Structures are given as C-alpha cells and as structure tokens.
Amino acid sequence: MQSISRRLQKINYSQTLAMSAKTRALKAKGLDVISLNIGEPDFSPPSYILEAAKKAVDQGHHYYTPVSGSLELREAVCEKFLRDNLLHYNPSQIVVSAGSKQSISNLFLSLLNPGDKVIIPSPFWVSYYEMVNLCEALPVIIHTSISTDFKITPEQLEEAITPDVKIFIFSSPCNPTGSVYSSEELKCLTKVFVKHPDVIIISDEIYEYINYSEKYTSIGSFPDVYEQTVTLNGISKTFAMTGWRIGFIGAPLWIAKTCEKVQGQTSSGTNSIAQQAAIIALKSHPNRIAYMIEAFRKRRDLVLDMMKEIPGFKSNEPVGSFYIFPNIAEIFGNTFLGVKISNAYDLSMFLLEKAQVATVAGSSFGAESNLRISYASSEETLKEAFKRIKRMLL
Ligand code: GLU
C-alpha cells in the first residue's frame, strides 16, 4: 500500500509557513492582507551585498563548492565569530548550509537516535520540536512564562537533564518571545552544563544583531562549555536575505564533519552565488546595518504602545528578534462579531478572516495562550494592522 512514512505521520506542517501560504492565497484573491506572521525583514538587502552577488555571476561562480561551503566563506564565518562572539573556530569547524534550518536538521540527523531526548525551553521556534520528532527522538520541554521573561533557570535545566538527554537547543534573542539571555544568565547555565559534558548545546543566534539590550554574549564563548557547544547563525534576518538560504554552524570538529557527511548526501551544500554574497555580508562591519536594528527597535516600542490599548493582550518587553508574543488567555471565551474565541488558533483565524491581519497561534511554539506577531514591517503597516485588530476586539 502506498503511504507516507510513519516518521512523517507524526509531524505537523510548519505553522509559520502555513500561515504564509494562507496569506499569499488571500492576497492572490485580491484581499489586502497585512502579514505579521512571517519572520522576514521588509528591508532590501544592502546594495554592497547585492553587488557582490552580481559580480559572482559575472566571475563564473556557477559550480559546486565544497560541501561545507567555499573556503573563503568559511574563513569569513570564522572572522565573524571571532570579531562578534569571541569564538575561535577554524574553517574545518564550519559548515554552511541552505539556511540555519538546514543546519539544525543536519545536526539532529547527525546526532539523534530514536528515543534520545532533546531539551527545548518553551516557547520555542516551531521547527525545533517537529524536527526532533522527525528524527524519532523525544522533546523534553522546559516551560517558562512572562514572569521570568520566558527564560529558564539553572534549577529547571538541572532538573530536565537525564542520562538520555543528548541535546539542548535554544534561541537568544528568542523566536518567538524576543527574550535575550544576559551574559550573567548564560554563565549560570554553563555551571549546569559543565556537570553534563555529554549534552550538546545548540545555540541558535540567528537574531544576534537584532538585540536592543546589552552587548550580545554567545554561550560558546564560555571556555568551560566551548567543546560541547554548536553556534548557529546565518544571514537571513540580519541582512534581510531570507530567500538566499545561507546559514552556518561553528562546532566541535567531529560534529562539523558529521554534518558535512549528512549534507554531502542530501543537498551537496548551498547556492554558490549566495555564498559569494555572504562573504561580503559577514566581512562588513555590523555598524553598516545599524539602521535596520534601530528601525526594529522603534517598531518594537510602537507595537508595545499600541498593544496596551487592546484589553487582554499581556506581553513581556522583548529586547531582541522582531516578534512580540502576547498572552491572550483573558479573551478566551469571548465572542466578537458572532465568533467565539476559545484559543489562540481561533483568534489568529478570526484576525485573518475579519481583520485581514495574519499572525501565528502560539500553540506550535509550545504556548497555547499566546499569539506571535512579527513587527518586521513598516511603522505605517503596523499602525494599520493594530487599528484593524483594535476595531475587531473592542
Ligand atoms: N524563522 C521564521 C519564522 O519563524 C521564518 C519561517 C520559518 O522558517 O519558520 O517566521
């Protein structure tokens, strides 16, 4: 009998991408939908990066690169890690992939056996959970709430680590909560990890630059945990290049090698022109994209202000990424325009259908009572979106 694999039967569609598909379909029908669902900057990539890509076409970069990425790019990644994160890697410890999403799937495929456990603090990015399931491993969720700014404590971590835990994965700045772990908070977590050197820490730093708090710290920069840490980053969010699909890891050599092995059998590596552009992006000083970060910060403030006017939306103050993740449980049970809202999915669908504002329900991020709103859109768009939301809910 023809059927999909048992492995796949257990996993859900990516809700971030499913909402994008719905939004696209409605827009194609001529509806004026505002997309606050996807994590995608509305800026154009910087022109000096685009120029590098055009030059790469003219120079004939049309062929396979090494599976892990061109040497020049891996050297640029090493420079970036040293400049921004005080992380010493050499090019053989770097694997460049088709977005950091592929980096994560390489890692999970390389490291997980069925039944292994992966600790994921919740709320989490949708695909961590599903990719763990895809590998027939078991997610172990550490729950957090607004009261702790959605951050885990060392005690929670210690309690979650059991002998069959193989990986701990988290994002800071966090998608979807916008929380950023301080250097001190990370240091406290490292004290737990050093007691468990077999647990591999995957530090997802894709929103590193989109950080309005103190200077950014990478957990791998603490020498005690360097050998058990994989640092994950990419150019999608920082340089507004989501479609170019460049993500990368810096990892202990044995992990880099095994990711290269997986990638060699699955994709042969990522796009050669995009790799040339990424070299220029990573070599450029972060100051050059400071205008985008400042715009995100202003939008964050605007959204927080506008949200105060909507009863029942309660949020932390996000200090990074470009999401806000209000708890909306207070409105559950209420009826608006004849539609009863019983959960976050109902609200997300209601806002899409009635206000034509696309968001993502928190359930796929491990938080049933929350709604994810991306503010990677212009202030004008955000104002219009909140005007519509307010009109529906007041
Ligand atoms: N990471 C972005 C988001 O959360 C892009 C979509 C995805 O890959 O999930 O919206």
UniProtKB/TrEMBL annotation:
Q: Which UniProt keywords apply?
A: Aminotransferase, Pyridoxal phosphate, Transferase
Q: Which cofactor does it need?
A: pyridoxal 5'-phosphate
Q: Which family does it belong to?
A: Belongs to the class-I pyridoxal-phosphate-dependent aminotransferase family.
Under the heading PROSITE patterns, the entry gives: AA_TRANSFER_CLASS_1
What positions does the domain Aminotransferase class I/classII large occupy?
32-389
User: What GO molecular function terms would the record report?
Assistant: pyridoxal phosphate binding; transaminase activity
- This protein's species is Candidatus Uzinura diaspidicola str. ASNER
Keyword Nucleus in the entry? The reply is: no
EC number(s): the record gives 2.6.1.-
Sorted alphabetically, the Gene Ontology BP terms of this entry are:
amino acid metabolic process
**Coiled-coil residue spans:** none
Protein name from the UniProt record: Aminotransferase
Q: Which InterPro entries match?
A: Aminotransferase_I/II_large, AspAT/PAT-like, NHTrfase_class1_PyrdxlP-BS, PyrdxlP-dep_Trfase, PyrdxlP-dep_Trfase_major, PyrdxlP-dep_Trfase_small
